[in-house]
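JOB MANIFEST
job_type = single_chain_structure
chain_count = 1
residues = 85
[input]
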Amino acid sequence: MLPPNYAESPFRTSYEMVRGHHQELLRQSEQARLLDEVKRQQPASASIDRRMAAWMSMQMLRLGKRLASYRKAAADPMRASGSLL
């Protein structure tokens, strides 16, 4: 129970600050709990699908670069053979 002269007390501000901080911690904790729950409900295959898509895109980029280098070599046969004559 609070003292009768609590309204004028210097501890009132401290108490309100601590209470506000506590409420903020509770809010953050609830958000973290909800986020964990959502992550648990997602199928594990979703992360595997993303990894597979990332790997596939990297392979396609590498192949594209290789094909582009073949095109350059075919367009300028003197440079491809190393001859500068």
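[summary]
The CA atoms of residues 45 and 51 lie 10 Å apart.
The chain has a mean pLDDT of 81.
exit_status = 0
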